[in-house]
Amino acid sequence: MPTPAPRTDWSSASQLLHWLVAVLILVMAWLGLTMGDLPNGPDKIATYALHKSIGLTILGLALLRLLVRWRAGAPAPIPGTPHWQSRIATITHVALYVLLLALPLTGWLLNSTAGFPLQWFGLVNLPSLAARDEALHALWVEAHELLFWAMATLVVLHAAAAFHHHLFLRDATLSRMLPRGRRRARAHDALETH
Ligand code: HEM
Ligand code: HEM
Asked: For residues 168 and 178, what is the distance between their CA atoms, to the nearest angstrom?
């Protein structure tokens, strides 16, 4: 059997999961940074519950993403990319995957050490990961916050790199992470205007 040609773009599943997680991270950042200031009451409790449920969803999606990545693989670096750039990109991507797992886990741990129950959208009860402990709770809150800002910094650099490739280097780094339809439409537009 002939060996299949190496991938030149991301699988649809990888693309879908990438953008879904990116949107959910934005929603989570907004919820996380604003929910503490809400007046006490049922709305605040519901907002915290939503934050926790979406956070657990991200944990599940990150695991699914790693599975898809392992099964479907990744495209080779764009030809001509200097080795040091591919290295930095790989290190950033690994760090983002680690944070996509570690951030929800610290959320789960801070919730457990506060002695709060945990449900996923009111449908599934999740076990506590640790006993109630005030000192540890304060530590996990710190870790959750710190990991969030680490992720926010990396995401800004990561997105800036993607736009730099797209706008200035004019290579396919960003477009191969976008759905086929839009890429075809752009190629068509380019033909029309040249
Ligand atoms: C990728 C997923 C997550 C993101 C991006 C995220 C983001 C954040 C952010 C930005 C804050 C505010 C930190 C601050 O005080 O400045 C926060 C707080 C919080 N998060 Fe998350 N979170 C995630 C997952 C989770 C999960 C899975 C849980 C629980 C199961 C959780 C529970 C909490 C709680 C209870 C707080 C309030 C902590 C406190 O101030 O006492 N988070 N989160
Ligand atoms: C505007 C926001 C974003 C843009 C423009 C963007 C763009 C991209 C692009 C173009 C790639 C492919 C890189 C390549 O082929 O070498 C990629 C990969 C990746 N992105 Fe993003 N991204 C964004 C947000 C995020 C967010 C919020 C996360 C997670 C916190 C994230 C995590 C990743 C990871 C882990 C990879 C590597 C995929 C793999 O190797 O399996 N991205 N991103």
From this structure: 18
CB-ligand 2 contact for 74 (6 Å cutoff)? yes
Q: Is the CB of residue 92 less than 8 Å from the CB of residue 154?
A: yes
Best mutation site among 17, 25, 124, 148 for ligand 1 pocket (most ligand atoms within 8 Å of CB): 148
CA gap 194, 188 in Å, rounded: 10
Q: Is residue 187 part of a domain?
A: yes
Q: Is residue 6 included in any domain, yes or no?
A: no
| 31: CATH | 1.20.950
Q: How far apart are the first and last CA of the chain?
A: 41
Question: Per the domain annotation, does 1 fall within a domain?
Answer: no
Residue nearest ligand 1's atom 42 by CA: 107
Q: Could you list the pLDDT tens digit for every one of the 194 residues in the chain? A: 455 556 778 999 999 999 999 999 999 999 999 999 999 999 999 999 999 999 999 999 999 999 999 998 899 888 888 999 999 999 999 999 999 999 999 999 999 999 999 999 999 999 999 999 999 999 999 999 999 999 999 999 999 999 999 999 999 999 999 986 455 545 544 544 44
Question: Which of 129, 133, 106, 99 is closest to 117 using CA atoms?
Answer: 129
Could you tell which of 144, 149, 151 is best to mutate to test the pocket of ligand 1, judged by most ligand atoms within 8 Å of the CB?
144
Q: Which domain holds residue 123?
A: 12-193
* Nearest residue by C-alpha to atom 15 in ligand 1: 145
